[in-house]
Write a structure and sequence with these properties.
binds pyridoxal-5'-phosphate
Length: 224
């Protein structure tokens, strides 16, 4: 199967899951996760019409996308940061990405707000929630979400919703339902959840953005 075929097949499964959940298929967006993929596969996805992409590292995203974005050939393309953001990469991230999905701590909120002001580039953000409360995982603890949201609003950060990466060994449906409930409590519309293995479950639980790598591009090559 070509990457265009993969995207068509995915779109069909997404539409079906949305319809079965009584949702408008147009309310679910595919974020094609291009991390660790070779440039020719990324080009194929662009040629297939895909415009929304996700990367989990700032430096790699820059190598993949800086020239393509600067070329202006795809003015409607949209790049999401879906991995942890170190404060020393904030400047580069604000310049490159169109959405930061992984806001998770107060210091980062302050730095993002300052940098967006400086670059006059106010990009939408999501807050990553550590729904499984795993000590090694990034994301704000659910009980600290209200305080973090208050800080974001105080700084004028445009928080559109929530994102989560459930624990690898858990049934993900409960985490997705939990994230949906948190978003509803805070009047947030965007829900980034679900990957290649569980995006239909995520759509049934209300995902507006699913982050899919393998099912779009094929297996990531084992290279650094
Ligand atoms: C890699 C990655 C994905 C995509 O995973 P697949 O299983 O390849 O679909 C989704 N979200 C995040 C945060 C990732 O790092």
């Amino acid at each position: 199967m070509s990457i265009a075929d993969n995207i068509t097949a995915l779109q069909r499964r997404m539409d079906k899951a949305a319809r079965e959940a009584g949702r408008d298929p147009a309310s679910v967006h595919l974020v094609a996760v291009s991390k660790k993929q070779p440039p020719e596969r990324i080009r194929s996805a662009l040629e297939a019409g895909q415009r929304l992409f996700g990367e989990n590292r700032v430096q790699e995203a820059s190598a993949h996308w800086e020239d393509i974005k600067a070329s202006g050939a795809y003015p409607d393309m949209n790049l999401h940061l879906i991995g942890p953001l170190q404060t020393n990469k904030v400047k580069e991230a604000v310049a490159l990405f169109d959405c930061i999905e992984t806001v998770d701590r107060e210091k980062l909120v302050h730095m993002l707000a300052r940098e967006m002001e400086k670059q006059n580039r106010r990009i939408p953000c999501l807050i990553q929630v550590n729904t499984g409360e795993e000590s090694q995982k990034s994301g704000v603890a659910p009980q600290n979400l209200p305080d973090l949201l208050t800080v974001c609003r105080g700084e004028g950060l445009n928080i559109q919703g929530l994102m989560c990466i459930p624990p690898a060994d858990d049934a993900t449906g409960v985490h997705f339902a939990f994230l949906h409930k948190l978003a509803a409590e805070h009047g947030l519309q965007t829900l980034s959840m679900g990957m290649s293995g569980d995006f239909e479950t995520a759509i049934r639980a209300g995902a507006t953005h699913i982050r899919v790598g393998t099912a779009v591009f094929g297996k990531r090559p084992d290279i650094a």
